[in-house]
Design a protein that fits this description.
This protein has 5 helices and no strands. By secondary structure, it is an all-alpha fold.
């Protein structure tokens, strides 16, 4: 299970909370949760949000 704790922040967070039953107040859980949005992949995803807080255009939301 060590490889899960050495992975991306969201994987570490899920491992700690779901598999190891650590609480939200645990310092390691808090750090993993806070690191999530700072991770390179997450930053890239959120860079694509428009200023209204969603991806794409309003038309996209009603045509899929």
């Amino acid at each position: 299970m060590g490889w899960l704790l050495a992975g991306e922040p969201r994987v570490v967070y899920g491992t700690l909370t779901d598999l190891l039953d650590r609480g939200e107040e645990d310092n390691v859980v808090v750090r993993a949760n806070m690191a999530g949005p700072q991770h390179t992949l997450m930053k890239k995803i959120f860079e694509e949000l428009n200023r209204d807080g969603y991806w794409g255009t309003p038309k996209d939301m009603h045509t899929r």
